[in-house]
Amino acid sequence: MSPYAIEIDRLSKYNYLVGYGSEIQADGSLQRERMVSFRISNIKQLRIMNSKSGRMTKDKQKQLKQALFTKGPQFLNGNTIEVIAKFTNKGIDRYYRHANMRPTYTEKLDEHTFVFHCPEHQAHYYFFSFGNDVTILSPRFLREQFKNQYR
After folding, report:
1. Quick one: which of 1, 13, 89, 120 is 20 to 30 A from 40 by CA?
2. Prediction pTM value
3. Sheet containing 80-87: order of strands
4. What is the DSSP code (8-state) at residue 78?
């Protein structure tokens, strides 16, 4: 990992070490470098690797800052999906009141329907607890996951 910063989540509950990292495959090769975050309280061991520079380009820093702004440090590791969610009046009120793990909407289609671009696990963690107060219109696989879990 090439560390960038220590960031705190939006509710000031946990600190995260954020930066770019790549996994080492069984054959010794590196996977593509990607943004990563680790909750500091979950880190068991740190080791400095002298063979790798920790510097990152200004472009990578800019991309990381943007991702931190939109996703927050706790959701850097996930692939971003587009979620279209339709809320009841109670669901809209709940969305604005419950900030923990809340994704920021990127578009408002009408007064009850919002578009989000967030990691799949963030969408799942946040919207699943809404029950009947939100309907996931898209993606279909997330809608099916919710239906199956509610059963």
Report:
1. 120
2. 0.68
3. 105-108, 113-119, 80-87, 134-138
4. S
CA 6 to chain centroid, in Å, comes to 16
Residue of 70, 66, 106 whose CA lies nearest to 85: 106
Beta strands in 27-67, from DSSP E residues, in sequence order: 34-39
Among 22, 138, 139, 136, CA closest to 77? 22
pLDDT in tens, 39-53: 999 988 888 776 666
* CB of 81 closer than 8 Å to CB of 71: no
Q: How far, in Å, CA of 6 to CA of 147, rounded? A: 37
Q: Order of strands, edge to edge, in the sheet holding 15-21?
A: 2-8, 15-21, 34-39
Length of the chain: 151
DSSP string, 89-148: HHHHHHHHH--TTPPPEEEESSSSEEEEEEEHHHHHHHHHTTGGGEEEEE-HHHHHHHHH
The DSSP bridge partners found for residue 24 are 30
Distance of alpha carbon 92 from the chain centroid: 21
What distance in Å separates the CA atoms of residue 111 and residue 125, rounded to the nearest whole number? Answer: 23
